[in-house]
Amino acid sequence: MQTCLPIESAFPKAHHSLQSRVVWGSRVVTVGGDAPVRVQSMTNTDTVDAIGTAIQVKELALAGSEMVRITVNTPEAAAAVPYVREQLDRMGIDVPLIGDFHYNGHRLLTDYPACAQALSKYRINPGNVGKGNKRDTQFGQMIEAALRWNKVVRIGVNWGSLDQELLASLMDENSARSAPWDARQVMYEALITSAIDSAQRAEDMGMRRDQIILSCKVSGVQDLISVYRELAKRTDHVLHLGLTEAGMGTKGTVASATALSILLQEGIGDTIRVSLTPQPGEARTQEVVIASEILQALGLRTFVPSVTACPGCGRTTSTTFQELAKQIDDFLRAQMPVWREQYPGVEGLRVAVMGCIVNGPGESKHADIGISLPGSGEAPAAPVFIDGEKRLTLRGDNIAQEFQVIVENYIENRFGAHAVAQAS
Length: 424
What we know:
Blueprint: E1 19-24, E2 27-32, E3 38-42, H1 50-63, E4 67-71, H2 75-90, E5 97-101, H3 105-111, H4 113-118, E6 121-124, H5 133-149, E7 152-158, H6 164-175, H7 183-204, E8 212-217, H8 221-234, E9 238-241, E10 247-248, H9 249-265, E11 271-272, E12 276-277, H10 286-297, E13 306-309, H11 320-342, E14 350-354, H12 360-366, E15 369-372, E16 382-386, E17 389-394, H13 399-415, H14 417-423
Parallel strand pairs: 3-4, 3-11, 4-5, 5-6, 6-7, 7-8, 8-9, 9-11, 10-12, 13-14, 14-15
Antiparallel strand pairs: 1-2, 15-16, 16-17
Helix pairs in contact: 1-2, 3-5, 6-7, 7-8, 8-9, 9-10, 13-14
Keywords: 4Fe-4S, Iron, Iron-sulfur, Isoprene biosynthesis, Metal-binding, Oxidoreductase
Family: Belongs to the IspG family.
Cofactor: [4Fe-4S] cluster
């Protein structure tokens, strides 16, 4: 028999960036360095509606968003920001708020100091801060506000609003090359140059490198991978990762998961946002769920207990296992805002809901707690496995409700205060 080395386990490479601190009161969200990859999101409410915006921010925060961005585009929106913050504080939601500024951010941050104070981070798009001689002045005003209030900034370049003067200059340089680059490669260079040069201007004004987060947003998967691989080579700034305008439903989910997973596996990216267009009637929180699932699937973080369920086949003509799997998954997610505090470690729980005897018992044994429901033609019995051992068998019409109670009891016994006390 040939002697060989053990197969190396796959795991994302380590990050090598600085670390930023996004702060509100006693809440500190570290980003980059040895911090976990952070999840963030953005509201789609009119910020002028302070109550509605605060409610959506709360929903996103409870779903797992560790920072939430809000639009600050008008004087009325800027005036409303302190009230959004006030409402959140009253509700006990200390998630940091990020102000999304374009075109007039320099005026809003100057004219509405309460807004500048209430935000924990400013998003600055160098392609939208002004043209010609105004660009440096207006960019400088936003950096001055960040310095005055000790805020972190994200310099977020977007290829939909790229600095056209910079792009034209790079195109001219490219045309003079003996072997000109492809136009797309010039655009990549423009994105990266805009981000890094803007960061350097901010540093020249007095900002620390660890106060600056960079992003170069594009909407194509391969484009994002190309840009961020090069960006990560050229800078140690904290990197915000995400497709812009990823799309709706399956398309947006798959595109975001593909691009982000490849880069995160390579150790690129310190905070992520899934820019998902909600389908009609779909909650805004879906983008947070997908971002969390990407990180959990890669083994970078755990947010909610995982539910393993078989896809179904001809052996499982009943939909009972599908309904139970969804019921358990929905139940666990709904409880997590409370359980995170009440049952430390519960997010690592593994639950299996299987549909027949082929893989059901085996998968259930590998989980912390699992149930193997009867497939077509099998005996109407559902063995329950706890910590790898068969403990009981459920029968009858109330299997779903009984299994949910078993899961709840298991969580209390394993992660509850008395279990922790006994372990210590």
